[in-house]
Amino acid sequence: MHSSRSRALALAAAALVTAPLVAQAPAAPASSAADPRVGLRTGWTDAGQAVRNLALVSHTDRPAGFVTPSDPGSFANANSDLAFKGTLVFIGNFNGFQIYDAADSKEPKLVTTVTCPGGQGDLSVHGNLLFMSVEETRGRVDCGSQGIRDTVSAERFRGVRIWDISTIAAPKQVGFVQTCRGSHTHTLVPDAKDPANVYVYVSGTAGVRSPNELAGCSRGRPDDPTTSRFSIDVIKVPVDNPSAARIIGSPRIFADQQSGPAIGLAGGACSGNGILLDISDPANPKRVHEVTDPNFAYWHSATFNNAGTSILFSDEWGGGTAPRCRATDKPTWGANALFRLADRRMTPAGHYKMPAPQTDAENCVAHNGSLIPVPGRDIMVQAFYQGGLTVFDFTNPEKPVEIAFFDRGPVSERLTLGGFWSTYWYNGRIYGSEIARGLDILELLPSEQLSQNEIDAAKTAQLDHFNPQTQVRYTWAPSFVVARAYVDQLARDRGLAKGRTTAIMTALRRAEGLEGAARSRALTTLAGALDRDARGAKDAPKVRMLRDVVQALAKG
Q1: What was the pLDDT predicted at 272?
Q2: Which of 44, 87, 385, 474 could form a disulfide with 419 if both were Cys (CB 3.0 to 4.6 A apart)?
Q3: For the chain, percent of residues with pLDDT exceeding 70
Q4: How many Cβ atoms from other residues are within 10 Å of residue 109's Cβ?
Q5: At residue 383, what are phi and psi to the nearest 5 degrees?
Q6: Sheet of 197-203: strands edge to edge?
Q7: What are phi and psi of 508, to 5 degrees?
Q8: Phi/psi of residue 318, each to 5°?
Q9: Where are the domains of the chain?
């Protein structure tokens, strides 16, 4: 299996569309035998659990029609990737998709299910449109479950389906685009300069269709300009007329070195290497740089840090079905490679892998995750299939550190597909798509490595929708909780003397208790003191970040 971001191209396209941007492996932990993730009880619905610095808010089993009791890990109905809109959670599945309302995260409500087999069913949302990837040869235009036996058939569908979700309980298919290799997954790329259209970058990893089934398809070699390989498809979708969606180009970003203007970047994990794309013109993505890592077997996904100064690529060794987190596996196998990013060039920094050894019965490699928007830090939550989920800090990409985790025991005593396909932060919660078990919602808890102020500050970065494969760039409105988060970081990392951080926190509490002109004067005084602190601080940039928030608060 090559899962949700495993495509020949995996993009993290961020607000990088509209704003400029966008070693040595760690040794296995010596105390791994004491890690509570080791030796968990096997079970599908009653597996043992281990958790640190997280709380499981709720678990919801897969609904009828999306589970086979005799084979919970069956590809036919495995859960896949997630998308979000308002309080709605969209879960892709090899048999269609599910929509939940998670307004009450303790009891998410199933709104509807749609049966439409055809592959892992990765989803993206744009307004009232839902996009779905289809790659398998059993996919049908009519969403039928009977499949197709003929080698060539006009009834077969492989590409991107488009659904109208304006009536959320009754999604209606309103458009589709056939592609030569289907859509293993896709990345939605909006263009602020062209709101009437949205672009879909399609990655297919399956074999090329016969030209007798879809005209123009070619299995040619790399030197054949008509080949359907070595490229992505770019679909242009008129938002008000999705039935008119069509392929407008198939750039061969895997073949030639190209250049473009210095705005709007995307990261691509392309099987054999990681690439950097210029997407300032979404209709014409251009390759600007690439890197390799000899430790990697299958480059899978890409994630920028919020500032666009580093990028993380993951390795889906074995396509996601193999156990690559055993004590005998190297810590770089199925891990993340981190690179620093400057002047549109990537340089190696470090590696990170979920640190607790897993069993032969657990498929385990790095998979889908997203940033947790703690201001001033680079923190990510990431799925590792049956290795569970891990939360780690890569602010220093040379030395990433785990700060929280959640894991269950194996689905079965024999190797069976399961575990987290995706784990994403969205508006204050972590959502996990569990392949064999369903939907999990978790909450971060404070610890020595992450304060309550930092968690509360992250919750202020709210989104109205989220397609994780189109990575957003977070911003934080000036607030006292954001200021306190910076003070906590300065205290933890000794960026300022302890006595000084204590005094700053006291001054913030005092100012917060004031109103009007009195508050403004107190904050202006504090901002001036912070400006002086920055001149001799160990972490001057963080002190200036704090000063800027305090100044903004002073202005009201």
Answers
A1: 79
A2: 385
A3: 92
A4: 12
A5: -85, 140
A6: 185-190, 197-203, 233-238, 246-249
A7: -65, -45
A8: 80, 10
A9: 15-466, 480-554
For the CA atoms of 110, 111, 117, 120, the dihedral, rounded to the nearest 10 degrees, stands at: -60
Strand partners, 312: 303, 338
- pTM to 2 decimal places: 0.93
- How much is the pLDDT for 67? 84
How would you label 215-250 residue by residue, b for 16+ Cβ within 10 Å and e otherwise? Answer: eebeeeeeeeeebbbbbbbbbbbebeebeebebeeb
What distance in Å separates the CA atoms of residue 67 and residue 108, rounded to the nearest whole number? 18
Kind and range of the H or E run holding 94: none
- What's the 3-state SS for 228-270? CCCCCEEEEEECCCHHHCEEEECCCCCCCCCCCCCCCEEEEEC
pLDDT of residue 47: 97
| pLDDT score of 262 more than 80 | no
d(C-alpha 547, C-alpha 486), whole Å: 10
If one counts every other C-beta atom within 10 angstroms of the C-beta of residue 265, the result is: 26
15-466: CATH, from 1.10.10.10, 1.10.3720.10, 3.40.50.150, 2.130.10.10: 2.130.10.10
Which one-letter amino acid corresponds to residue 112?
Answer: T
Q: How many CB atoms lie within 10 A of CB 498?
A: 10
